[in-house]
């Protein structure tokens, strides 16, 4: 049941939060943007609404699987820990049990999400290709017609314009195939070290904070919070998780975007030091406000859908 509920909750969440995720990735990877509204205005002016949904199809197809694995792994690990420590899978877990299970769920999902994240980031940071070169003007050495040569040949036709090469990646699957061909398997798992560091402790924070908030928001005499309690607990859990995840999320996005031109970073540590040296320590918190604003409604939807499916499926 947890696998199915997690899948449905994940799909609902990505549908709500994807446009802001695109803005977040562009702010983190492209220094030209001075802030949230600058990025939104620029994206809309050049790419309209579709620009906010670049690379959406692959996350929608894979989010159900990834979210299912995350929630299912969390519940399975928690049950095994409780069975080992207390003799029953239904025993009330301690906070350390929840933390360990949440960390395990974050680490497991990395192996599934890394290729998807690479494709998503590449597509989100891919802007329109440059248009063909303008027609060349006649050179100074080209003979001009004169009055003494009335029958002179007409001037040469301007050189034909170059055809627009179009975007490098035509879609998620084409992006994955291109990355695999040009960069090999390592290209598909670029930034996975930062992703491991991001998801391990952030998912531990995610599930722990949700469990604590649900406990606080459960009315007296009830075993579970009402819908409003789930909404608040889910939204706050998402905000706290992204608050601790943002520094590694910045590094992850930069490593994964580093492949559309000359390679700038040799690895996680080089990317971290280079980013801080050129842009200051504040670069590690680029997109923090946006991550938190996006996380609240997204995780409200995720947990409400998750809990609703669980309740419907229970006998």
Number of helices: 9
SSE order in H/E notation?
Answer: HHHHHHHHH
Overall pLDDT: 81
Count of individual beta strands: 0
Give the termini distance in whole angstroms: 11 Å
Structure commentary:
With 315 residues, the chain is mostly helical. The chain has helices spanning 2-29, 36-47, 57-86, 95-124, 172-188, 192-217, 227-257, 268-279, 288-313. It contains nine helices and no strands. The N and C termini lie close together (11 Å). 40% of the residues are buried. The model is unreliable at 128-153 (pLDDT under 50).
Provide the fold topology.
Elements: H1 2-29, H2 36-47, H3 57-86, H4 95-124, H5 172-188, H6 192-217, H7 227-257, H8 268-279, H9 288-313
Keywords:
315 residues, mainly alpha, 9 helices, 0% strand, globular
Give the structure's gist in a few sentences:
The protein has 315 residues and is an all-alpha fold. The protein contains nine helices and no strands.
């Amino acid at each position: 049941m947890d696998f199915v509920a997690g899948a449905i909750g994940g799909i609902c969440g990505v549908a709500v939060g994807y446009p802001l995720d695109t803005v977040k990735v562009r702010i983190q990877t492209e220094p030209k943007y001075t802030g949230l509204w600058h990025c939104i205005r620029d994206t809309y002016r050049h790419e309209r609404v579709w620009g906010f949904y670049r690379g959406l199809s692959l996350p929608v197809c894979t989010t159900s699987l990834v979210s299912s694995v995350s929630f299912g792994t969390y519940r399975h690990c928690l049950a095994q820990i409780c069975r080992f420590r207390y003799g029953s899978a239904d025993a009330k877990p301690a906070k350390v049990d929840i933390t360990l299970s949440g960390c395990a769920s974050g680490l497991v999902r990395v192996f599934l999400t890394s290729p998807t994240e690479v494709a998503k980031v590449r597509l989100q940071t891919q802007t329109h290709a440059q248009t063909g070169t303008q027609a060349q003007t006649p050179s100074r050495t080209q003979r001009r017609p004169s009055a003494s040569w009335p029958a002179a040949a007409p001037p040469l036709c301007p050189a034909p314009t170059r055809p627009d090469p179009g975007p490098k990646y035509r879609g998620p699957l084409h992006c994955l195939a291109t990355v695999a061909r040009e960069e090999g398997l390592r290209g598909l798992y670029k930034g996975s070290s930062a992703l491991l560091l991001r998801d391990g402790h952030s998912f531990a924070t995610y599930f722990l904070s949700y469990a604590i908030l649900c406990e606080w928001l459960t009315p007296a005499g009830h075993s579970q919070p009402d819908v409003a309690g789930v909404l608040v607990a889910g939204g706050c859990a998402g905000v706290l998780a992204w608050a601790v995840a943002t520094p590694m999320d910045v590094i992850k996005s930069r490593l994964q975007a580093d492949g559309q031109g000359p390679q700038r970073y040799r690895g996680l540590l080089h990317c971290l030091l280079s980013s801080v040296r050129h842009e200051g320590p504040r670069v590690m918190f680029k997109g923090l406000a946006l991550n938190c604003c996006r996380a609240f409604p997204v995780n409200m939807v995720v947990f409400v859908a998750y809990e609703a499916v669980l309740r419907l499926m229970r006998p």
